[in-house]
Amino acid sequence: MPIQQTLPSSRFFLLLAVLFATLWFGQLDYRKLVKPDEGRYAEISREMVVSGDWVTPRLNDLKYFEKPPMQYWATAAAFETFGTNEWTARLWTALTGFAGVLLAGYTGARLYGRTAGLLAAIVLGSSFYYFALGHINTLDMGVSLFLELALAGFLLAHRDNAGSRENRNWMLLTWAAMAGAMLSKGLIGLVLPGAALVIYVLLTRQWQILARMHWIKGLALFGLLAVPWFVLVSQRNPEFFQFFFIHEHFQRFAADGHRRTGAWWYFFPVLIIGISPWLNWLLQSMRDGLRSQGETFRPGLLLLVWSVFIFFFFSISHSKLPAYILPIMPALAILIGKRLATTDARQLAPHFAGLAVLSAGVMIAALLLPQLQDLSSKDTPPEMILAYARWIQVACVTGCAGFVLAWLQSRRGKAFGAIVTAAAASSLVVTLFLCGHNSLARSNSAYYLAEAIKHEVRADIPFYSVLMYDQTLPFYMQRPMTLVAYTDELEMGIKAEPHKAIMNLETFRQRWQSEPKALALLRREDFEVFARDGFIPMRVIARDSRRVVVAKP
């Protein structure tokens, strides 16, 4: 029986939404912030609150222009409203991810009907990749929401039954969303939607779309929202333009110097794992988008063009990170939701049975994790791996049980119940994987180190970070450090304000000798060299598997 004939009452949907929201937002503060991204973006926002300067982003009290300020503003506002902690640090990511699920459902319903929209929301909200990135403090979910909003606005503005007023309002929302995307992550806010539109028009020869873009009002709105910050930050920081637009966009896309390279197939495994547990319908849904027809406008084809172009765009880039293709997930979820709406329960059963078997296989592999000694290292000792392995085992048991139950429901003709059960199992599996990652926090986060040294840290005592920079320690100490013989991503900020860093070890040693009190953060191997050579007098006040904090005796 097709799914649209088996939908339950509205009360059930309300209960489902409440449970999903509880799971989505309830875990934000369970894990400590991990390096590098979570600590970096939380600290930039914290320093924005402390300094009161909402124009020039700073990291470790150094100018930091790698990304625009949208997420910094949102997180700083959350810090001022609710306090500085892990929950508020991840709140913008979680809010934009949750809003993206609702937007995919709304857009799918307007394009293809209520059932397809509901299933699009379920697919997106329970996809491994999307659910996970909705709970990790990076910039990708925020820009993904604005790009999704731009896509949704364009789809709804140009659908065949849209009137002139609807077209105008949705297109203005599209222009505003592109401004939000540009303020979130730069020029891709314009490049990705613009290129997808050009490709669609060239494929369909629907030139009349270009006459319904509301160019004058749209560009004016875009400029009003996006341009002022770029003007202000450029006026206050002459080095901004070259670094942000040339270095961070064109050079990063075309050059290999950012240690983010990958093969042309880099994003294929990301997509395969990320779209799970709905992978079985991916190719079928994309084929439907290619074949979609309408009186004039073809939303399925635009969803497909959007997904394929973004995937290809980042595949040819010389800078690759797994989260880069996140903006294609809402478009694929809408296509999959449309496909599932016409799927019979009996067609679901083999898929869920396969997922149950796969979960069992991963569970067996997780049982072997503690035996694989090469997974542990001096930075991540075996006991941490073992603790995380237990969480993975529980997650796999949960997934296996959930997919078996989904298989049984689909065998009994309960298609919608089977999909909801599989979605719930998927969400719980990712939740357990995420929460279990906190088992590695003593290695990947500086929270416990900061707790151990907080009685020694005072504003009037200099704190040096020697030959390294830990992204999470300044956030948990609520103060920056003085970098010693280290630049990396802070090179531009150090060049702009060289007096805030120490460029060589000899100068550091002289400074250390002259201070009445001082603290320093070292990698464990550097500490051992310093101790062996007697480089500086020091006493250990805290250490973990990666780092050592010393004080001047």
The strands making up the biggest β-sheet line up spatially as 5-4-3-6-8-7
Largest sheet: 6 strands, mixed
Low-confidence runs (pLDDT<50, min 5 residues)? none
Q: What helical percentage do the residues reach?
A: 55-70%
Strand content: 5-15%
Distance between the amino and carboxyl termini: 76 Å
Mean pLDDT: 92
Cα Rg: 25 Å
What class do helices, strands and sheet pairing give?
A: mainly alpha
Q: Can you offer a commentary on this structure?
A:
The protein has 553 residues and is mostly helical. Helices cover 64% and strands 5% of the residues. It contains 25 helices and eight strands. It has helices at residues 10-26, 37-51, 70-82, 86-89, 91-112, 114-126, 128-133, 140-158, 164-185, 188-204, 215-236, 240-254, 267-274, 282-291, 299-316, 328-340, 345-368, 382-411, 415-436, 441-444, 447-453, 473-477, 491-496, 505-514, 524-533; strands spanning 58-59, 62-63, 463-466, 482-484, 501-502, 519-523, 539-543, 547-551. A six-stranded mixed β-sheet has the order 5-4-3-6-8-7. Strands 1-2 form a two-stranded antiparallel sheet. The relative contact order is 0.11. The mean pLDDT is 92.
